Amino acid sequence: MKLDNISIILVEPQGPINIGACCRVMKNFGFKDLRLVNPCQGYKSKDGRKMALNAMDILKSAKLYKTLNSALEDCNIAFGTTRRRGKYRSDFITPDITAKKIQAYDDLTKIALVFGREDSGLTTNELKKCQKFVTIPTDDAFASMNLSHAITILLYEINGKIINKNNISGSGSSQEKELATGKELEQMYSHMRKGLIKIEYLDPNNPDHLLKSYRKIFGNAELTSRDVRIIRGLISKIEWIESKTR
Questions:
Q1: Per-residue confidence (pLDDT) for residue 238, from 0 to 100
Q2: CA–CA separation, 55 and 20 (whole Å)
Q3: Chain Cα centroid distance, residue 177
Q4: Low-confidence residues in the chain, pLDDT < 70
Q5: Which pLDDT belongs to residue 33?
Q6: pLDDT tens-digit profile of 105-134?
Q7: pLDDT tens for residues 168-190?
Q8: Domain of 232, in residue numbers
Q9: 45 and 131 together in one domain
Q10: How far apart are CA 30 and CA 23, in angstroms?
Q11: Are residues 144 and 239 in the same domain?
């Protein structure tokens, strides 16, 4: 795994100072690809530039997206960060475990680290686009962390694992399978949704309730492009059989 394969995605960041500080942290630990989903106006303002300091190149080259889906299209695995727990927020991993998992991927795998809004984080709908959930253990009396501070902890852990590994054993990796992209996965889920509604397996009034469980199952499985094609082939066959029984 190379640091260049890891993208930092900020969803609707609300302040140029925080965005500038994130750029600085990325530069500290060797990360370059910053993606902003609907950032605040003036994110390149004087305040943002002052915080970025010598990381202005990252701020200037940040890619802009209208949706999280589009920002994840070319990524194979997305790690969503959250503090809140709930029905669809479980199986959290800590930054050190996150770093170990990322360390195992090969140089063809593209990773996304997804961070939410400063005041409310990622929504449940946004988290379902991610295959892994990351949380930073903090004191319950004051659990919420500043955005740039949270990014610092995660990037520090990842940098340490990857740099140490490369220094010891070169760029080889135990992860050999080429994983599906975010675009392929979302197309598969859309196909599943349509096909399973047709056969009345999913409730047409609330199809995403059960689909969330499939997202979790397939997210843990880390599907390859071939896996996705096989699953979509199955759905297509189901749709064909359903059309013949009308």
A1: 87
A2: 8
A3: 19
A4: 84-90, 165-176
A5: 96
A6: 988 899 999 999 988 889 989 999 999 999
A7: 444 444 455 788 999 999 999 99
A8: 182-244
A9: yes
A10: 10
A11: no
Q: How far apart are the first and last CA of the chain?
A: 50
In a domain, 175, yes or no: no
CB-CB contact of 75 with 114 (8 Å)? no
Indicate yes or no: pTM above 0.85.
Answer: no
Asked if 70 and 35 touch (Cβ cutoff 8 Å), the reply is: no
Res 173: pLDDT: 46
CA atoms within 13 A on the CB side of 33: 17
